[in-house]
Amino acid sequence: MFPSISIGPYLLQTPGLILILGVWAGTFLSEKEAERYSLNKDTISNLILYSLIAGIVGARLAFALRTPGVYLSSPLSLLALDATALAPTEGLLIGITVAIIVIQRKNLPIRVILDALTPGLAIFMIAWATANILSGDAFGSPTDLPWAIQLWGENRHPVQFYDLIFAVIILGVILKKPFMDFGSGINFLFLFSLSSLVRLITEAFRGDSILWFGSIRAAQLVSLVLLIGTLWLIRDWSINSSTKSFSVSE
User: Fold this and answer.
1) What's the pTM?
2) Fewer Cβ atoms within 10 Å of its own Cβ: the N or the C terminal residue of the chain?
3) Dihedral in degrees, nearest 10, Cα atoms 153, 159, 162, 166
4) Which structural domain range is residue 205 located in?
5) Does residue 7 form part of some domain?
């Protein structure tokens, strides 16, 4: 892969650079989306900042809990600017949780805000997959398939490319807003359900999965729970929106 580039005496980590560009592009797109919903774009920018900080800190701490020996022997490693030493799923959940807390405390329209954030999150998913391609993280299991890639001494499933392809497809679907008529917040839930479904599928080809009870892939179990939860919310929010629309028309 291509984890770094040398610029004179400096070594620039390409995954970190891609993630920074992803945050910038995602924020820009979410601000534009906020204007379409008549929201203050500064509100969106601040919300992204709070969520990003919480998500990064949470992702680093979650990663440290997976490998406690490394950080117990060298606690300052927690502060290292290493984009590969993050737990993305946990970081995303923590970031979203903080965003929801901020939204509720400021009494903002949560579903509209979530819809405004949706395209930005989809862009960041593309950046995350690209960063994994460059770093070699989230690698696949060994395979003899003709499209296998050589990585870490073996031919492996190009899981990072699977993730990138799916992320681009998801962005295209999200931008079309196929369920916009079903009410506010549905586009966000649709993104979350699609992302969970993709992780459920691609995790089966991962070579670095965390196993629970010896054989259960942790990420698949979490993704399945999230998929079921978001599908239930889509149904619930759609029914509530339909009921409100019917009441207004009455």
Assistant:
1) 0.84
2) C
3) -150
4) 12-241
5) no
